[in-house]
Amino acid sequence: MKKRYFHNITSWDLPKKNERSIYLGKIAESHYEAYLDIDELTKHMIIAGSTGGGKTIAAQIIAEEAFSKGIAIAVIDPTAQWTGFIKELEENAIKKKYGNFGMKKDSAKSYPTRIINLDKNRHFTQPEEFLSKEVITVLAATDLLEREIDAAIAEIINLFFKNTSQEHEELQTLLFFEEIHRILPKYGGTGSGLIALERAVREFRKWGIGIVLISQVLEDFVGEIRANIGTEMQLRTSYEVDLDKIILKYGDEMAKAVVREETGTLMMHNSSYNIGKPFFINIRPPMHDVHRLSNKELQKYYLIDEKISELANSKLSEQDEFTIKLARKELLRGNMRMAETYVDEVSQKK
Questions:
Q1: 60 and 200 share a domain?
Q2: What confidence tier does 1 reach under pLDDT thresholds 50, 70, 90?
Q3: 240-250 and 252-259 are packed helices; what angle lies between their axes, rounded to 10 degrees?
Protein backbone atom coordinates (compact mmCIF):
# COMPACT_ATOMS: atom_id res chain seq x y z
CA MET A 1 0.00 0.00 0.00
CA LYS A 2 1.32 3.40 -0.98
CA LYS A 3 2.03 5.53 2.06
CA ARG A 4 0.74 9.09 2.40
CA TYR A 5 3.55 10.39 4.60
CA PHE A 6 7.20 10.60 3.73
CA HIS A 7 9.23 10.33 6.93
CA ASN A 8 12.16 8.29 8.14
CA ILE A 9 11.60 6.90 11.63
CA THR A 10 14.46 5.98 13.93
CA SER A 11 12.46 4.18 16.61
CA TRP A 12 15.21 4.07 19.21
CA ASP A 13 15.43 7.87 19.13
CA LEU A 14 11.71 8.60 19.55
CA PRO A 15 10.35 9.93 22.87
CA LYS A 16 9.42 7.08 25.19
CA LYS A 17 6.69 6.53 27.75
CA ASN A 18 7.77 7.49 31.27
CA GLU A 19 6.61 9.50 34.29
CA ARG A 20 7.40 12.80 32.59
CA SER A 21 6.00 12.02 29.15
CA ILE A 22 2.60 12.78 27.67
CA TYR A 23 0.74 10.62 25.16
CA LEU A 24 0.04 12.33 21.84
CA GLY A 25 -1.26 9.49 19.68
CA LYS A 26 0.40 7.28 17.08
CA ILE A 27 3.29 7.75 14.69
CA ALA A 28 1.53 8.00 11.33
CA GLU A 29 1.38 4.77 9.33
CA SER A 30 3.13 2.77 12.06
CA HIS A 31 2.40 0.88 15.25
CA TYR A 32 4.53 3.17 17.43
CA GLU A 33 2.90 5.27 20.12
CA ALA A 34 3.82 8.95 20.08
CA TYR A 35 4.97 10.66 23.27
CA LEU A 36 6.57 13.94 24.23
CA ASP A 37 8.76 14.62 27.24
CA ILE A 38 6.67 17.22 29.03
CA ASP A 39 9.73 19.13 30.21
CA GLU A 40 10.60 19.80 26.56
CA LEU A 41 7.75 22.30 26.74
CA THR A 42 9.89 24.60 28.88
CA LYS A 43 11.65 25.20 25.54
CA HIS A 44 8.23 26.18 24.14
CA MET A 45 6.18 25.04 21.17
CA ILE A 46 4.48 26.49 18.11
CA ILE A 47 1.55 24.77 16.38
CA ALA A 48 0.64 26.01 12.91
CA GLY A 49 -1.75 25.09 10.14
CA SER A 50 -4.62 26.23 7.99
CA THR A 51 -8.13 26.58 9.38
CA GLY A 52 -9.74 23.16 9.81
CA GLY A 53 -6.47 21.25 9.98
CA GLY A 54 -6.80 20.51 13.68
CA LYS A 55 -4.19 22.78 15.27
CA THR A 56 -6.45 23.83 18.15
CA ILE A 57 -7.38 20.21 18.94
CA ALA A 58 -3.68 19.26 18.88
CA ALA A 59 -2.98 22.02 21.40
CA GLN A 60 -5.92 20.92 23.53
CA ILE A 61 -4.66 17.33 23.65
CA ILE A 62 -1.38 18.68 25.04
CA ALA A 63 -3.37 20.67 27.60
CA GLU A 64 -5.39 17.58 28.63
CA GLU A 65 -2.23 15.58 29.10
CA ALA A 66 -0.31 18.33 30.90
CA PHE A 67 -3.20 19.02 33.28
CA SER A 68 -3.27 15.32 34.19
CA LYS A 69 0.40 15.71 35.20
CA GLY A 70 -0.39 18.52 37.63
CA ILE A 71 0.68 21.37 35.36
CA ALA A 72 -1.08 24.73 35.77
CA ILE A 73 -2.82 25.62 32.50
CA ALA A 74 -3.97 29.03 31.27
CA VAL A 75 -5.19 29.91 27.77
CA ILE A 76 -5.59 33.32 26.18
CA ASP A 77 -8.39 32.58 23.74
CA PRO A 78 -9.91 35.18 21.39
CA THR A 79 -12.33 32.55 20.03
CA ALA A 80 -13.67 31.00 23.29
CA GLN A 81 -13.04 27.65 21.57
CA TRP A 82 -11.35 26.32 24.69
CA THR A 83 -14.46 26.76 26.83
CA GLY A 84 -15.53 23.29 25.68
CA PHE A 85 -13.19 21.82 28.31
CA ILE A 86 -16.00 22.30 30.81
CA LYS A 87 -18.11 19.64 29.04
CA GLU A 88 -17.58 15.96 28.36
CA LEU A 89 -17.22 14.84 24.75
CA GLU A 90 -20.49 13.37 23.48
CA GLU A 91 -19.82 12.92 19.75
CA ASN A 92 -19.92 9.20 18.99
CA ALA A 93 -18.05 9.67 15.72
CA ILE A 94 -15.02 10.85 17.70
CA LYS A 95 -15.46 8.33 20.50
CA LYS A 96 -15.34 5.52 17.95
CA LYS A 97 -11.71 6.42 17.32
CA TYR A 98 -10.73 5.81 20.96
CA GLY A 99 -10.00 2.14 20.36
CA ASN A 100 -7.45 2.97 17.65
CA PHE A 101 -5.40 4.79 20.26
CA GLY A 102 -5.72 2.36 23.14
CA MET A 103 -8.25 4.58 24.90
CA LYS A 104 -11.21 3.17 26.84
CA LYS A 105 -14.77 3.71 25.64
CA ASP A 106 -15.54 5.70 28.78
CA SER A 107 -12.43 7.93 28.50
CA ALA A 108 -14.53 10.98 27.64
CA LYS A 109 -14.57 13.51 30.49
CA SER A 110 -14.97 17.16 31.34
CA TYR A 111 -12.36 19.27 33.12
CA PRO A 112 -12.83 21.79 35.91
CA THR A 113 -12.67 25.03 33.97
CA ARG A 114 -12.57 28.61 35.08
CA ILE A 115 -13.67 30.99 32.33
CA ILE A 116 -12.68 34.62 32.76
CA ASN A 117 -14.06 37.34 30.53
CA LEU A 118 -10.88 39.14 29.49
CA ASP A 119 -12.38 42.52 28.67
CA LYS A 120 -10.40 45.77 28.52
CA ASN A 121 -11.28 46.59 32.14
CA ARG A 122 -9.94 43.29 33.50
CA HIS A 123 -6.51 43.59 35.08
CA PHE A 124 -4.53 41.25 37.31
CA THR A 125 -1.86 42.02 39.88
CA GLN A 126 -0.28 38.57 40.03
CA PRO A 127 -0.51 35.25 38.11
CA GLU A 128 -2.15 33.45 41.03
CA GLU A 129 -5.33 35.42 40.36
CA PHE A 130 -5.96 33.34 37.25
CA LEU A 131 -3.54 30.43 37.51
CA SER A 132 -4.19 27.19 39.41
CA LYS A 133 -3.24 23.54 39.17
CA GLU A 134 -6.79 22.67 40.20
CA VAL A 135 -8.55 24.07 37.11
CA ILE A 136 -7.91 24.90 33.47
CA THR A 137 -8.22 28.66 33.09
CA VAL A 138 -9.61 30.09 29.87
CA LEU A 139 -9.09 33.83 29.49
CA ALA A 140 -11.75 34.47 26.87
CA ALA A 141 -10.82 37.58 24.86
CA THR A 142 -13.82 37.52 22.54
CA ASP A 143 -14.72 41.14 23.29
CA LEU A 144 -11.25 42.55 22.58
CA LEU A 145 -9.90 44.10 19.41
CA GLU A 146 -6.53 42.88 18.11
CA ARG A 147 -4.64 45.81 19.66
CA GLU A 148 -6.38 45.14 22.98
CA ILE A 149 -5.48 41.43 22.84
CA ASP A 150 -1.92 42.53 22.14
CA ALA A 151 -1.89 44.75 25.24
CA ALA A 152 -3.49 42.04 27.41
CA ILE A 153 -0.85 39.50 26.38
CA ALA A 154 1.94 41.95 27.20
CA GLU A 155 0.38 42.71 30.58
CA ILE A 156 -0.08 39.05 31.52
CA ILE A 157 3.44 38.06 30.47
CA ASN A 158 4.93 40.95 32.42
CA LEU A 159 3.07 39.75 35.54
CA PHE A 160 5.29 36.66 35.57
CA PHE A 161 8.45 38.75 35.37
CA LYS A 162 7.27 40.89 38.28
CA ASN A 163 6.01 38.07 40.51
CA THR A 164 8.07 34.95 39.72
CA SER A 165 11.42 34.19 41.31
CA GLN A 166 11.67 30.50 42.23
CA GLU A 167 13.52 28.53 39.56
CA HIS A 168 12.39 25.07 38.36
CA GLU A 169 14.00 22.64 35.95
CA GLU A 170 10.71 20.79 35.42
CA LEU A 171 7.61 22.23 33.75
CA GLN A 172 5.26 23.90 36.24
CA THR A 173 3.06 26.14 34.12
CA LEU A 174 1.88 26.04 30.51
CA LEU A 175 0.53 29.13 28.77
CA PHE A 176 -1.38 28.71 25.52
CA PHE A 177 -1.86 31.61 23.11
CA GLU A 178 -4.66 30.81 20.65
CA GLU A 179 -4.80 32.65 17.30
CA ILE A 180 -1.54 34.37 18.24
CA HIS A 181 -1.09 35.72 14.72
CA ARG A 182 -3.79 38.26 15.59
CA ILE A 183 -1.23 40.34 17.51
CA LEU A 184 1.03 40.75 14.47
CA PRO A 185 1.20 44.35 13.21
CA LYS A 186 -0.34 43.37 9.86
CA TYR A 187 -3.50 42.24 11.69
CA GLY A 188 -3.72 45.26 14.00
CA GLY A 189 -1.29 44.47 16.80
CA THR A 190 0.83 47.26 18.23
CA GLY A 191 3.99 45.21 18.84
CA SER A 192 3.87 45.21 22.65
CA GLY A 193 2.74 41.59 22.80
CA LEU A 194 5.47 40.44 20.43
CA ILE A 195 8.13 42.22 22.47
CA ALA A 196 6.83 40.57 25.64
CA LEU A 197 6.77 37.15 23.92
CA GLU A 198 10.34 37.57 22.71
CA ARG A 199 11.48 38.13 26.28
CA ALA A 200 9.28 35.32 27.61
CA VAL A 201 10.60 32.62 25.26
CA ARG A 202 14.13 33.57 26.29
CA GLU A 203 13.64 33.68 30.05
CA PHE A 204 10.57 31.69 31.14
CA ARG A 205 12.37 28.37 30.96
CA LYS A 206 14.29 28.98 34.19
CA TRP A 207 10.98 29.21 36.07
CA GLY A 208 9.51 26.07 34.50
CA ILE A 209 7.05 28.05 32.39
CA GLY A 210 6.29 26.80 28.89
CA ILE A 211 4.60 28.69 26.06
CA VAL A 212 2.51 27.16 23.27
CA LEU A 213 1.79 29.46 20.32
CA ILE A 214 -1.09 28.51 18.01
CA SER A 215 -1.06 30.25 14.65
CA GLN A 216 -2.02 29.87 11.00
CA VAL A 217 1.42 30.57 9.56
CA LEU A 218 4.64 29.24 11.08
CA GLU A 219 6.90 31.70 9.31
CA ASP A 220 5.04 34.69 10.76
CA PHE A 221 7.20 34.16 13.83
CA VAL A 222 10.87 34.61 13.08
CA GLY A 223 13.88 36.02 14.87
CA GLU A 224 14.05 35.68 18.65
CA ILE A 225 10.71 33.94 19.02
CA ARG A 226 11.32 31.25 16.41
CA ALA A 227 14.92 30.76 17.55
CA ASN A 228 13.74 29.90 21.06
CA ILE A 229 11.01 27.42 20.09
CA GLY A 230 12.07 23.85 20.82
CA THR A 231 9.16 21.95 19.27
CA GLU A 232 7.25 22.71 16.07
CA MET A 233 4.04 21.06 14.97
CA GLN A 234 2.92 21.71 11.41
CA LEU A 235 -0.57 20.70 10.38
CA ARG A 236 -1.98 20.81 6.88
CA THR A 237 -1.25 24.10 5.15
CA SER A 238 -1.26 25.69 1.72
CA TYR A 239 0.72 28.77 2.74
CA GLU A 240 3.59 29.01 0.27
CA VAL A 241 5.98 30.69 2.69
CA ASP A 242 5.72 27.75 5.13
CA LEU A 243 5.92 25.14 2.37
CA ASP A 244 8.97 26.82 0.85
CA LYS A 245 10.71 26.70 4.23
CA ILE A 246 9.84 23.00 4.63
CA ILE A 247 11.27 22.28 1.17
CA LEU A 248 14.43 24.19 2.06
CA LYS A 249 14.92 22.41 5.39
CA TYR A 250 13.54 18.92 4.80
CA GLY A 251 12.99 18.43 1.08
CA ASP A 252 10.20 18.45 -1.48
CA GLU A 253 8.66 15.11 -0.45
CA MET A 254 8.17 16.29 3.13
CA ALA A 255 6.38 19.42 1.91
CA LYS A 256 4.08 17.31 -0.29
CA ALA A 257 3.24 15.17 2.74
CA VAL A 258 2.29 18.28 4.74
CA VAL A 259 -0.03 19.47 1.96
CA ARG A 260 -1.92 16.17 1.98
CA GLU A 261 -2.11 15.73 5.74
CA GLU A 262 -5.44 14.50 7.02
CA THR A 263 -7.21 16.49 9.72
CA GLY A 264 -5.58 15.59 13.02
CA THR A 265 -2.26 14.56 11.51
CA LEU A 266 0.79 16.78 11.97
CA MET A 267 4.47 16.98 11.25
CA MET A 268 6.49 17.28 14.44
CA HIS A 269 10.05 18.47 14.75
CA ASN A 270 12.19 18.51 17.87
CA SER A 271 15.95 18.32 17.54
CA SER A 272 16.11 15.90 20.51
CA TYR A 273 14.06 13.25 18.68
CA ASN A 274 14.43 11.08 15.58
CA ILE A 275 18.01 12.26 15.04
CA GLY A 276 16.65 15.74 14.45
CA LYS A 277 14.42 14.70 11.54
CA PRO A 278 10.70 15.60 11.47
CA PHE A 279 8.06 12.87 11.62
CA PHE A 280 4.28 12.62 11.38
CA ILE A 281 1.85 11.94 14.22
CA ASN A 282 -1.84 11.05 14.26
CA ILE A 283 -3.12 12.97 17.28
CA ARG A 284 -5.36 11.01 19.67
CA PRO A 285 -9.02 12.07 20.04
CA PRO A 286 -9.93 14.57 22.77
CA MET A 287 -11.82 13.66 25.92
CA HIS A 288 -13.57 17.04 26.35
CA ASP A 289 -16.21 18.64 24.16
CA VAL A 290 -14.65 20.08 21.00
CA HIS A 291 -17.34 22.77 20.71
CA ARG A 292 -17.17 26.09 22.53
CA LEU A 293 -19.91 27.27 24.85
CA SER A 294 -22.55 29.33 23.11
CA ASN A 295 -22.60 33.08 23.71
CA LYS A 296 -25.73 32.58 25.81
CA GLU A 297 -23.98 29.95 27.94
CA LEU A 298 -20.92 32.17 28.31
CA GLN A 299 -22.97 35.14 29.46
CA LYS A 300 -24.78 32.96 32.00
CA TYR A 301 -21.44 31.62 33.26
CA TYR A 302 -20.08 35.15 33.66
CA LEU A 303 -23.21 36.31 35.48
CA ILE A 304 -23.15 33.43 37.98
CA ASP A 305 -19.41 33.88 38.48
CA GLU A 306 -19.92 37.58 39.23
CA LYS A 307 -22.68 36.83 41.75
CA ILE A 308 -20.52 34.22 43.47
CA SER A 309 -17.65 36.70 43.78
CA GLU A 310 -19.95 39.40 45.18
CA LEU A 311 -21.39 37.05 47.78
CA ALA A 312 -17.99 35.60 48.68
CA ASN A 313 -16.75 39.12 49.45
CA SER A 314 -19.76 39.94 51.65
CA LYS A 315 -20.43 39.03 55.27
CA LEU A 316 -21.81 35.50 55.32
CA SER A 317 -22.63 32.88 57.92
CA GLU A 318 -20.46 29.80 58.05
CA GLN A 319 -23.19 27.78 56.37
CA ASP A 320 -23.59 30.33 53.56
CA GLU A 321 -19.83 30.44 53.01
CA PHE A 322 -19.92 26.68 52.52
CA THR A 323 -22.87 27.00 50.12
CA ILE A 324 -21.01 29.58 48.01
CA LYS A 325 -18.00 27.29 47.85
CA LEU A 326 -20.32 24.58 46.54
CA ALA A 327 -21.67 27.04 43.98
CA ARG A 328 -18.14 27.79 42.77
CA LYS A 329 -17.33 24.10 42.54
CA GLU A 330 -20.44 23.36 40.49
CA LEU A 331 -19.77 26.32 38.17
CA LEU A 332 -16.24 25.12 37.46
CA ARG A 333 -17.71 21.73 36.56
CA GLY A 334 -20.17 23.33 34.15
CA ASN A 335 -23.23 22.63 36.31
CA MET A 336 -24.60 26.15 35.96
CA ARG A 337 -28.13 25.29 37.02
CA MET A 338 -26.94 23.82 40.31
CA ALA A 339 -24.52 26.71 40.85
CA GLU A 340 -27.33 29.18 40.26
CA THR A 341 -29.54 27.33 42.75
CA TYR A 342 -26.88 27.67 45.46
CA VAL A 343 -26.39 31.35 44.64
CA ASP A 344 -30.12 32.04 44.82
CA GLU A 345 -30.31 30.23 48.16
CA VAL A 346 -27.74 32.58 49.70
CA SER A 347 -28.99 35.70 47.89
CA GLN A 348 -32.49 35.32 49.29
CA LYS A 349 -31.05 35.68 52.79
CA LYS A 350 -29.36 39.00 52.03
A1: yes
A2: very low
A3: 140
CATH code of the domain in which 46 resides = 3.40.50.300
pLDDT at residue 11, as a whole number: 81
The boundaries of the domain holding residue 174 are: 11-283
Is pTM, for the whole model, over 0.90? Answer: yes
Average pLDDT over residues 310-334: 94
Average pLDDT over residues 239-263: 90
Residue among 219, 151, 160 nearest 189 (CA): 151
167 and 302, same structural domain?
no
How many domains is the chain partitioned into structurally? 2
Average pLDDT over residues 329-336: 96
| Within a domain: 3 | no
Distance CA 78, CA 350 (A): 36
What distance lies between CA 325 and its chain's CA centroid? 27
